[in-house]
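We were asked to recover a plausible sequence for a given structure. The inputs and outputs are reproduced exactly as logged, with field labels preserved.

PROBLEM: sequence recovery
POSITIONS: 213
GIVEN STRUCTURE:
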C-alpha cells in the first residue's frame, strides 16, 4: 500500500506509521482531530486506521499531605462529564490543573493554593503518565507535597473559571477507605493514594471497613 507521510503530523519518525490525512473536527477549549493513517502490523501487512485525538494540553496533579497529622488534602467539585453519563458529578479529587505553558511544579503550587488555600512546601514530582492514551493526548505530571503549617482555607477555587471546590482534609487511612467504598472514583487521585501508601505513609493504619455487606 502506497501512501504519503505528512510532515510534522504526529510523533517521532517511525517506519510503521504513515499519516495520510489530518482533519480538525473542533477547536475550542481543546482541539479534536481525526487522523487517517496506514499502520504496518507485526506480520508486515499494512492496515488503514482512523483515530480521533483530543488535545487540551498537559496537566499536573498533587497530593498535599500533613505528615505530622497523618492527613491528606482533597477537594470535592462538580464534574459535568461524570454527571452526564449518569454518575454523581461531585467527585473527590487531588488538586489538579492544566499547565497553560507553566512549569509543572510552579503550576501545581498555584493550583493547590487556589483550590484549597494550602501553601505547599517544595512539590516533589513522582512520575508522569498518560491517563487515557486511547484518545486523549494529555500527559499528567504527578506530585506530592507537604503543606505549610497554618495555611489552608475553604477558598472555593477561581470563580471566573467556574470552580466551586469544597476542601476536605481527611486522615490518610480514611481516604484509602473512601476509595475502597467508591466514594473516590478519580483515577489520578487513587494513583497518588497508592503511592502515598507505599512511600509516604507505609505504616499508617487501615480504616475499618464500613461498607454494607
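RECOVERED SEQUENCE:
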Amino acid at each position: 500500500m502506497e501512501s504519503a507521510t505528512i510532515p510534522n503530523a504526529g510523533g517521532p519518525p517511525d517506519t510503521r506509521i504513515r499519516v495520510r490525512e489530518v482533519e480538525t473536527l473542533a477547536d475550542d477549549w481543546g482541539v479534536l482531530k481525526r487522523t487517517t493513517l496506514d499502520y504496518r502490523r507485526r506480520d508486515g501487512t499494512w492496515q488503514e486506521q482512523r483515530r480521533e485525538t483530543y488535545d487540551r494540553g498537559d496537566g499536573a496533579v498533587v497530593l498535599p499531605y500533613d505528615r505530622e497529622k497523618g492527613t491528606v488534602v482533597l477537594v470535592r467539585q462538580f464534574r459535568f462529564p461524570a454527571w452526564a453519563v449518569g454518575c454523581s458529578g461531585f467527585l473527590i479529587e487531588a488538586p489538579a490543573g492544566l499547565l497553560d505553558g507553566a512549569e509543572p511544579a510552579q503550576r501545581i503550587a498555584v493550583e493547590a493554593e487556589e483550590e484549597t488555600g494550602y501553601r505547599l512546601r517544595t512539590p516533589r514530582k513522582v512520575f508522569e503518565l498518560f491517563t487515557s492514551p486511547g484518545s486523549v493526548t494529555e500527559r499528567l505530571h504527578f506530585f506530592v507535597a507537604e503543606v505549610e503549617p497554618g495555611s489552608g482555607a475553604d477558598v472555593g477555587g477561581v470563580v471566573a473559571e467556574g470552580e466551586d471546590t469544597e476542601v476536605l482534609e481527611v486522615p490518610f487511612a480514611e481516604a484509602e477507605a473512601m476509595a475502597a467504598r467508591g466514594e473516590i472514583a478519580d483515577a489520578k487521585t487513587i494513583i497518588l493514594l497508592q503511592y502515598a501508601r507505599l512511600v509516604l505513609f507505609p505504616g499508617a493504619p487501615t480504616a475499618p471497613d464500613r461498607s454494607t455487606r
